[in-house]
Amino acid sequence: MNMKYVFVLVIAIAAIAEGAEYTVGDDMGWMVPPTPDYYASWVSKYYFVENDTLVFNFEQGIHDITVLTKEDFDACNMKNPLFQSPEPGEVSVMASDTFYFTCSFGQHCANGQKFAIYFASAPLPPSPSPCPSESAIADQSTESRPFKFVSAKMGNELGRFGLN
Description:
Strand content: 25-35%
Mean pLDDT: 78
Helix content: 10-25%
Shape: globular
Number of helices: 4
Low-confidence stretches: 1-16, 134-144, 152-164
Radius of gyration: 18 Å
Largest sheet: 5 strands, mixed
Distance between the termini: 44 Å
Order of helices and strands: HEHEEHEEEEHEE
């Protein structure tokens, strides 16, 4: 095999493993949008996969990051959030599914500060490795969580949470 192609393949595999980083709302950041469909339009511009990271930029005390079930998201019901952070930060998504983000302050959700986002399965690079044993698969399932939140303020991982 030509070494040039091997090098390109290694770079491509590394990029897949790290995931991409997206600033929610691009330059506007995370705030009450100028139109209710602003964040839905923002989501539609990109293709998200597992291991991608969403960066939430906002002024602390004015907004937050809240993850809801679909039902609570549709109704802007903040009574039972699956996850909530009062500070800006990064959310790395480590599972293929649809997730529902909003802000729990005042009428922010009702005014369009929310989005549903689907993360596709990350493409798997070809591997000559044998399939893992059933016990290895069971061990992995207890450790996996679909999110990792990293505080922008603290610069460290605050914790992982599962959404089942």
